[in-house]
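Budget justification note: compute hours in this period were largely spent on complex prediction jobs such as the one shown. Inputs:
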Amino acid sequence: MFEKILVANRGEIAVRIIRACKELNIRTVAVYSEADANSMHVQMADEAICIGKAPATESYLRIDRIVSAAEISDVDAIHPGYGFLSENAHFAEVCEQCNIRFIGPSPRAMQALADKAVSRALAKKAGVPTPPGSDGPVEKEQEALAVAKRIGYPVMIKAVAGGGGRGMRVAHNDVSLVKGYHTARSEAEKAFGNSKVYIEKYIENPHHIEIQILGDQRGRIIHLGERDCSIQRRNQKVIEEAPSPLLENKFRKLREKIGKAAIRIAEAARYTNAGTVEFIVDEHGNFYFLEVNKRIQVEHPVTEEVTGIDLVRYQILLAAGEPLQHSQSDIEIKGHAIECRINAEDPFDDFRPSPGRIEMYYQPGGRGVRVDTHAYAGYTIPPTYDSMIGKLIVTGKDRREAIDRMNRALGEYLITGVKTTISFQQAVMQDPNFRRGVYSTGFVDHLLGGPRRELIEEKT
Amino acid sequence: MIGTFYRSPSPEAAAYVEVGSEVNPETVVCIIEAMKVMNEIKAEVKGIITQVLVENAKPVEFGQPLFKVRPS
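Corresponding output:
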């Protein structure tokens, strides 16, 4: 078992990883940028090493500095968290070359799922349905038009190297496709260093259903059920829940089918450690593979709450070579969990980021309430990174209890000094369609733009 | 730079600089070893070393001061 782990991340996920390490009696090393000197993960870790100035490109993305820090602190393994270098195959390789275990999938599995287009091809080979679209990256505008003609509008132009909801645009006709194609390519080059794009049928108002998988180094893979992440704003998830109300209410048999499909893809890629296989499900119960997220995800807590399994702990054990402790039949989904992301954003000003000093901070508690955060009273949220303050996760014996409890918990959550999305989340909890479990990815736009906007009243 | 600080080019050799040494911008004052590469670190100022802030073979992190120099 590892004796010391370096956490190559920041914020709430760094705190989460440090907690899992502490429970395994593993010593921790935090790395931080100058902007994060007072951050919670730095205080919690046994050792901390400054690796650069605030911008991520000068700190959290600097492979050389992180590996140097790992060497001088003599760690056995690095946990990359999510974002930053977590899906960087080169980083994983450098770690292995320096005899440091990378807590995540093997470099080979990462290559097999290297980008969205490659993953799509792998899924097709594994006999898993994918949205109709191009066979691979589209090299010329003529090709794009031909694909659109074959599959029919509307279509999505997607960057193969995109992630976190970025690098996608919709086209409804030939004119917008041509324009969108060229713009998407240059945006992708700038944002991801890779201008390749592919075309997919745009499935309107889909549900985003993802399957959590775990794989050990002996090739065994299990899934831990689904998460429904359809409540999104500008392709960013805001609320996630497990299990999915769509599958519970309408398409019960789909759970097993989608779970098996996720495992088939993971096996084809020889996947190890934790990952998430994403699908979209349309209103007729057709499901299509989207991509694999080769890391622990932000919303992993809802799966932990309904399965009773610590996913970050499992990541560490699997990376250390331990076999899976559970078989597929051991996995039971009990109760219902909802996660609301709490961001430092102003919901009344188009969710503009609101960094700054948190003056008063009181987080909710009580039965079935979990808060994963790095925030505290007096903490200054730096402007350089994402706007996440924390995640509020609530569990109930069923969905109704979870929603009522989330509403109660949001009402107790006190944060002053910065704007937060707490009031917006409460409006969602009180929305009749959300409560009925009837929603798709168009839900937030509808809530914000429609007649119920007055529900989102400023709570002072 | 992050790595291990060494005061001399090799264990038996004399230190690059001591308190009282005169340096100019191009003077090599120490080595920081990172990922098996020995990086020669230059003074980047002209002056006299008044204090050595890090012990030999100790790890150093980003932004950590290594020497005090009185500029001349």
